[in-house]
Amino acid sequence: MCGIVAYLGQREATPILTEGLKRLEYRGYDSAGIAVIRDGELILRRSVGRISALEEKIGQELNGTTVGMAHTRWATHGAPTEINAHPHIAANGKLAMVHNGIIENYRVLRTFLEQQGVEFASETDTEVLAQLIGHFYDGNLEDAVRRALRDVRGTFGIAVLHADHADTIVAARRGSPLIVGVGQDEHVVASDASAIIQHTPQVIYLEDNEVAVITREGFHTTNLEAAPVSKAVEEVEWTLEQLELGGHQHFMSKEIFEQPESLRNCMRGRVDEQDSRVVLGGLNNIMREMVRCKRIILTGCGTAWHACLVGEYLIEELARIPCEVEYASEFRYRNPLIFDRTVVIAISQSGETADTLAALREAKDRGAMALGIVNAVGSTIARETDAGVYLHVGPEIGVASTKAFTGQLTVLTMIAAMLARRRHMGHGAGRRLLSELAKMPERIERALELNTQARQIAARFVEAENWLYLGRGLQYPVALEGALKLKEISYIHAEGLPAAEMKHGPIALISENMPVVMIAPRCELYEKVVSNIEEVRSRGGHVIAVATEGDESIKQLAEDVLYVPDCPEELQPLLTVIPLQLLAYHAAVLRGCDVDKPRNLAKSVTVE
Ligand code: G6P
Question: Is 2 among the catalytic positions?
């Protein structure tokens, strides 16, 4: 989704800004723009498409300045055109603003400004805010920003420049993340830490309705009423190396292959097999309430929602606590029933997904204990929860979530095991479960050896326009996740279904050579899944099975078998999803798709 970078310091600004935009590319965008102040003049350049197109357009033209800002836009109001791209200009070409978020009352504000004689260049809500700031500007930029923001409904992360204040950036946020990197005589403002960490690990996280006024030497922060707010400088944990490709062709492949290591990091210091204990520091303070809770609601979007479905099974099966799953986008508007001792857990890789954040706030308002399972340290969801658990799987750049998904499953398993041990599970059973969990990274390493076979299978079906993914029990969410991976990056239509539901309609789709991925590890429902495979085969479908090593009989039924190592049923999703990630990855590469930045998708969806 949209990205912001702004720089004010001692160095050449333009290369820092374009480099920063590239670090934010993974969020998804369709146009880009830049504005700098040079010799008291504001210079603006924008273009549709990739950042490289913008770079070509500007060449060396914008060099010779140490202040500027840049933006990648993901169209919401108005088409992805140059005119609608940010920065937007106001105050006779002197003021520029970049914006993430949505100004909900932009129509009313636009009408008001038009009545005052303001002329608009674009269709965007953003320009309305830029013009509103311009309208209030009378020589004091920070006052004008605060004054305008007091009239705004909706969400924003903004940075503002004015040609008459070449030594100032004003930044503010509500709802959309904004971070200020604090360097030596320089500052970088960005919507995401990945555009900051090559310059400095020191950051401040702006909170809602805070305004930061940044100069080369320092910054001060206020609320919208101009009252000072003091901010602590914090340190970002992720390194630049973690953000780079490390020899892989795409971030998605790097992240798939990182999973053994990322899960070791996720479990480090948390799983104590010998003592049969799970230690999750982030939940320590609320542990007694959690153990006594009557109901757990898991909520999230996309891949995180699939992790919730696995979590529901784990929490009910292991901890024996009633658990429900709800899409965050539905939960927030559904008037949910929250009784005493309800715990709501929001799951989000980015910690910034607008719907998940809104669901979390709704849960808190209704008195639930609100927890988070989040990857991005310091993100909004992480900061707004009562308590939570970080994934610690490192930054995920590829739009298609892979290592965050297995991280989420691992954290959910740890939570379920921890609750189970404190409620009814004995020492021995706990120890067995945890020692099996600790072996998962090694097993995933073996599952990753399926890479070549997955590529060969993907190559055979690369022309097929429809795929089905079927699984039962715990493998049903895995089927959903496999289908989502395929469709989001290769644009092949794919559906995930509970295998038994196939006969109630989707079976009509099966025809000669249609690829049907059957997730059929050794499990309680194995025999039933085998019957489902036969139903597909007898209609000419091509079965690709994901099965447990040593299951020779499945070869009689499926044309292709991707074998994963054996493990207890509760942990199988961590393994069965691996070949599905690989299948999707290779299908997308073979179809020539932009794997890490698929069309129309954003890594972090900060609008509704
Ligand atoms: C977007 C991404 C998905 C992701 C979902 C939730 O739609 O494209 O891959 O699963 O958002 O993101 P979150 O950061 O909250 O996990």
Answer: yes
